[in-house]
Amino acid sequence: MQELDSSPSLETVIVRVTGRVQGVGFRLATVRRAHMVGVGGWVRNNDDGSVEALVQGTPDQVDQMLEWMRQGPPQARVDDLASERQFIDRRFARFEQQ
Question: Could you say which enzyme class this protein belongs to (predicted)?
Answer without folding.
Answer: hydrolase
